[in-house]
Specification:
The complex is a heterodimer of chains A (about 325) and B (about 350). With about 325 residues, chain A is α/β, with parallel strands linked by helices. Chain A is about 35% helix and about 15% strand. Chain A has 2 domains: about 1-105 and about 160-170; about 185-325, no CATH class. Chain A has helices at about 1-15, 40-45, 60-65, 75-90, 110-115, 155-160, 185-190, 195-205, 215-220, 245-260, 265-270, 280-295, 320-325, and strands at about 20-25, 35, 70-75, 95-100, 120-125, 135-140, 145-150, 170. A 5-stranded mixed β-sheet of chain A has the order 2-1-3-4-8. A 3-stranded antiparallel β-sheet of chain A has the order 5-6-7, with no helix packed on it. In chain A, about 45% of the residues are buried. Helices cover about 30% and strands about 20% of the residues of chain B. Chain B has 11 helices and 12 strands. Classes of the chains: A alpha/beta (about 325), B alpha+beta (about 350).
Chain lengths: ~325, ~350
C-alpha cells in the first residue's frame, strides 16, 4: 500500500495530476470511503487500499472529468471495464484520467462475515493487500474469530472476470485468481424454473426493495443526468413503496436500460441494503446476448459497438422470444 | 416480573395474535425486517437490528390518506380509515422505541397527524433489551440505555428464558391476555444481564463519541457555513439508504395517484438525499448534493434539537453506519467537525 501512496505523491508533486481519487480509511477499520486527495499529507494520513475497498471508482470519474487537470484514479481490474464503457458512452474524458491499475486479491463483504454469525466486529486483520489472503482474524466484542478470506468475498469475486486491467497507464501490485464458481451457474438454475417459479422467485426478492436507489446511483451504467424514475411527471412518486409491482417495474426497466452496457461489476448487489441479488437480472441479459450475438463483454475496450447498438443482417429476430418459450 | 421458556414463544405469539395484529422481526428471503406474524414466518429475535427500523408500523413508507371519486357531476371524498384495532410490535430495541419519541414531536404536535396518532394509540410496544450490542451502536451517546428500553412491556432474553416485565397500563393489559403462558420470576438474572450489557456498551467503538458543539447550543451558522461539508459530501451517491433505514427520518411527500375516475391522495417517505426533495412550484431550494447532505445532519444534530428542547433526532441505532453503500455516516460527520475544530 505504501508504494501506492508514494507513487501518488510523486505524480502530485510533479504536477502530472491535480488530485488523487482513491479510498480513505474508515473509522471502523472496514468501512473505507471513496475520497479525493490533493496533498501528500492527506495521502499519508488517510489513504487506504485493502480488501474492503470494493467501491468501483469509475463512476466518480464523470465528475472528476469536469475538473481542471488530471485525476489519478486507482482502478481494480473489474473497475476498468466500467471505465472503458464510460469512455464509449462519452461520459468520462480519457485525457483527464491517469489510471493506475491496482492489483486485487478479491474484495471482502462485511455482510458476508456478519452472516457467518460474527457479531460486534472491531477489527479485521489479514485484509491488507500484502497478506496471503487465506484467513481473516476478526477481533470482536465477543472474542476473536477466524474466517476464510474466500468465504468472506463478494459474490462478484467468485466469478471474477480476470486479473488483467482493460485500460490503464500503469499497473501496480499483484492480483490473485479468485474465480471458483461459474458466472452463469445461478442463471442456469433460474432458467430451469417454470415460469411461475421464476415469477415467485423474483417477486420474493424484489418485494424486499425499499426504493432507496442505491443500486441505480452506484451503477456506472446508470449515468443519465436525470433518471426517468426521478421525474415528477409520473402519477406515482417513484420513491413510493406501494406494491411489489412498482418495485419490479423499476428493476426490470433498469435492467433493460443497462442491457449490453452492464459490465457485471456487481456493485448493485454489493450496495443493496436488503441483499437482493440484483446482478442476476443483468447477468441473464449478458448470457442471452452471448447466445444470440456471440460472446461479448461490455467494457473490454472503449471503441467497439455493442451488439445492441449495431445492426447486422445476422441479428437474431425478435420472434426468438416466443420460439424459446 | 414474569418469564416464559423460549420454546413457548410460538405459543405466546399465537396468543398475542389472537386478539391483536402482531409485528415481529422475521427473516424473509435472507433479510430481517418487522413483518406481520403468522405461523409460517421465520421469526428472528437474534439479529440485533432489522434492516429497516420498525417505524413503518406507525408511519408506513407509503399510505393512502383519502380517495376522491368522480361520478358524473358528483365528487365524493372518502378519508382512509384510521387504525382502530390494537396491534403489538414485538422486539423493538431501545433505540427504536426512542425513535418514536422523536416522531411524536413531529406528528403529535399541532396540527396533529391523525393517521399517526391513531397508530400510536393502538400500538402496544413490547421492547427487547439488547443482549449483544454491536460495533455500530451508539445509543448511549443520546442517553439511551440498551439494557433497559422504554415500551409497554420490556422483555429480556436470558439463556433459555425470556423475562417479561409490564411497565404501562397497555402492557398490563397485554400481560393479562397472555398470563396463562407466563410464570412468576425474580429479577436477579435481569439485573445481572443489565450490568453485563452496560459493560459491553462501555467498550463499543463509538461509546465515547462527543456531541459537544451540537444540539440546542450549537452556533447554527457556524455549522451551516462550515467548509467541512464540502469535503464530507463528495463521495455521497445521493441514494436514500440512510434515510429509509433510519428510525427517526420523518420527511414525506404527498402525491395524487390518478385512478382514471378520481385520485388517491397518498404520502410516502421522502429522502433529503433525493433531487426532488421539498420541490416547490418555484423549483427546489436545495440545488446541490452538498446542500442536501448538509440538511440531513443539520436537521438531526442542530435544527431538531433547537426546536425540541435539545432532543436530537438521531438515536444512535447505527443502521446508516451499517448500510451506507460507501461508508459514510453521521458518526463520521460528528468526528470530522471535531477534528476540523468546529465544535
Amino acid at each position: 500500500m505504501q508504494r501506492l501512496i508514494d507513487r501518488a505523491k510523486e505524480l502530485l508533486a510533479s504536477g502530472e495530476v491535480a488530485r488523487v481519487l482513491g479510498w480513505k480509511k474508515g473509522d471502523l477499520g472496514f468501512n473505507p470511503e471513496p475520497s479525493y486527495f490533493e496533498t501528500a499529507e492527506s495521502l499519508d494520513n488517510d489513504f487506504v487500499y485493502d480488501g474492503f475497498c470494493g467501491a468501483n471508482l469509475s463512476k466518480y470519474m464523470i465528475e472528476a472529468s469536469k475538473k481542471d487537470g488530471k485525476t489519478l484514479v486507482f482502478l481494480k481490474p473489474c473497475d476498468t471495464y466500467s471505465f472503458n464503457q464510460l469512455i464509449k458512452e462519452h461520459r468520462v474524458d480519457r485525457e483527464k484520467a491517469y489510471i493506475i491499475g491496482v492489483g486485487c486479491k478479491g474484495k471482502l463483504d462485511i455482510e458476508a462475515i456478519k452472516a457467518m454469525g460474527v457479531k460486534g466486529i472491531l477489527e479485521v486483520s489479514g485484509a491488507d493487500i500484502n497478506s496471503d489472503c487465506e484467513t481473516l482474524t476478526v477481533k470482536t466484542l465477543y472474542g476473536d474469530k477466524e474466517v476464510s478470506y474466500n468465504d468472506a468475498m463478494l459474490e462478484r469475486c467468485h466469478v471474477c472476470k480476470g486479473k488483467e486491467h482493460q485500460i490503464c497507464d500503469e499497473v501496480m501490485l499483484d492480483s490473485r485468481d479468485t474465480k471458483d464458481a461459474e458466472r452463469f451457474a445461478e442463471i442456469e438454475k433460474i432458467e430451469a424454473m417454470s415460469p411461475m417459479e421464476k415469477f415467485e422467485f423474483f417477486k420474493k426478492e424484489l418485494s424486499k426493495c425499499i426504493r432507496c436507489n442505491a443500486c441505480r446511483n452506484v451503477c456506472p451504467a446508470c449515468s443519465c443526468r436525470k433518471c426517468v424514475f426521478d421525474s415528477n411527471k409520473f402519477d406515482e412518486a417513484t420513491k413510493a413503496n406501494v406494491d411489489s409491482f412498482e418495485e419490479k417495474m423499476f428493476h426490470i426497466i433498469r435492467a433493460f436500460h443497462v442491457a449490453g452496457r452492464c459490465t457485471d461489476c456487481g456493485e448493485c448487489s454489493r450496495v443493496c441494503p436488503q441483499g437482493i441479488p440484483l446482478h442476476l437480472f443483468n447477468r441473464k441479459f449478458i448470457k442471452d446476448i452471448d447466445t444470440f450475438y456471440g460472446e461479448f463483454q461490455a467494457g473490454e475496450d472503449s471503441e467497439t459497438k455493442g451488439p445492441l447498438t449495431a445492426f447486422t443482417f445476422d441479428d437474431v429476430e425478435p420472434s426468438i422470444v416466443t420460439e424459446r418459450g | 416480573m414474569y418469564k416464559i421458556n423460549k420454546e413457548n414463544l410460538s405459543a405466546l405469539f399465537s396468543c398475542i395474535a389472537d386478539a391483536n395484529e402482531l409485528y415481529v422481526p422475521c427473516n424473509i428471503n435472507g433479510s430481517v425486517n418487522f413483518a406481520a406474524w403468522d405461523e409460517e414466518q421465520l421469526v428472528d429475535l437474534d439479529t440485533l437490528k432489522t434492516v429497516k427500523s420498525p417505524k413503518d408500523a406507525f408511519f408506513p413508507q407509503s399510505e393512502t390518506l383519502y380517495s376522491c371519486k368522480r361520478n358524473g357531476k358528483k365528487l365524493s371524498i372518502t378519508p382512509e380509515e384510521l387504525q382502530n384495532k390494537d396491534f403489538v410490535v414485538f422486539g423493538m430495541k431501545a433505540c427504536d422505541v426512542r425513535g418514536l419519541a422523536v416522531l411524536d414531536k413531529v406528528f403529535l404536535v399541532d396540527p396533529v397527524d391523525s393517521y399517526y396518532k391513531a397508530r400510536r394509540e393502538h400500538g402496544i410496544i413490547v421492547s427487547l433489551a439488547c443482549s449483544q450490542p454491536e460495533e455500530a451502536c451508539f445509543c448511549n451517546v443520546f442517553g439511551i440505555d440498551a439494557s433497559q428500553p422504554e415500551g409497554d412491556v420490556v422483555v429480556y432474553m436470558i439463556g433459555d428464558e425470556m423475562y417479561w416485565n409490564a411497565v404501562t397500563e397497555k402492557g398490563e393489559k397485554l400481560t393479562k391476555q397472555v398470563a396463562s403462558l407466563l410464570t412468576d420470576a425474580d429479577e436477579a438474572k435481569v439485573e445481572a444481564q443489565k450490568a453485563s450489557i452496560k459493560e459491553i456498551v462501555s467498550r463499543l467503538p463509538y461509546s465515547s463519541l462527543s456531541l459537544e458543539g451540537w444540539g440546542k447550543d450549537a452556533v447554527l451558522l457556524d455549522k451551516f457555513n462550515s467548509p467541512i461539508w464540502e469535503e464530507l459530501y463528495k463521495p455521497c451517491l445521493a441514494c436514500g439508504t440512510c434515510t429509509f433505514v433510519c428510525p427517526t427520518c420523518q420527511c414525506y411527500d404527498i402525491k395524487d395517484y390518478n385512478t382514471g375516475n378520481g385520485v388517491q391522495r397518498y404520502r410516502c417517505w421522502d429522502s433529503c438525499m433525493y433531487s426532488d426533495f421539498t420541490m416547490m412550484a418555484h423549483g427546489n431550494n436545495r440545488t446541490s448534493q452538498m446542500q442536501r447532505y448538509r440538511q440531513r445532519f443539520m436537521h438531526k444534530l442542530v435544527y431538531f434539537p433547537q426546536n425540541n428542547d435539545g432532543m436530537y433526532s438521531c438515536v444512535g441505532c447505527g443502521r446508516c453506519v451499517d448500510k451506507c453503500p460507501i461508508g459514510l455516516n453521521i458518526v463520521k460527520v460528528i468526528k470530522a467537525f471535531e477534528k476540523g475544530g468546529n465544535r
